[in-house]
Amino acid sequence: MTPPELSAGSFHVGNAANSAGARGWILGHFVADESDVRHTKDVEVKWSEHPAGDHRDGWVTGETRTTLLLLVKGHFHITLSTGAYELIKPGDYAVWGPGIDHIWRAEVDSIVVTVRWPSRS
């Protein structure tokens, strides 16, 4: 059973797959209400469901933060300016720091969690 969306002061319970209001971001500066426990400038967390063939158009460049991409399900191809990598088994991940450019492609229906730090303010 999926938990209901519940917030009160210093806690929030919900479902990451249902957080589409913030384009999948469940923590970070994307949460507009600064009194919401999910609003933070320290870290960003995103749940993403990508259909087979979904891809990033154009390189992400000039990034100043560190990123973790964690495969939950599927087969995800990440190309960094340092090389290309396949995330195939649940739990496979890639981490890259500032100055590393990237693009990505979902080879099959995939779910990934992205964590970036610090969050943009």
> What is the end-to-end distance?
35 Å
What form results from the Cα inertia axes? globular
Biggest beta-sheet profile = 5 strands, antiparallel
Helix content bin: under 10%
Q: Number of helical segments? A: 0
How is this structure best summarized?
By secondary structure, the chain is mostly beta strands. It has no helices and 10 strands.
What does the model show?
The structure is a single chain. By secondary structure, the chain is an all-beta fold. A hairpin with a 2-residue loop joins strand 1 and strand 2 (11-13). It has a single domain, classed as Sandwich (Jelly Rolls). The radius of gyration is 15 Å and the shape is globular. It has strands at 6-8, 11-13, 25-27, 44-50, 66-73, 76-80, 83-87, 93-96, 102-106, 110-117. Helix content is 0%, strand content 42%.
Characteristics of this structure?
121 residues, mainly beta, Jelly Rolls, five-stranded antiparallel beta sheet, three-stranded antiparallel beta sheet, globular
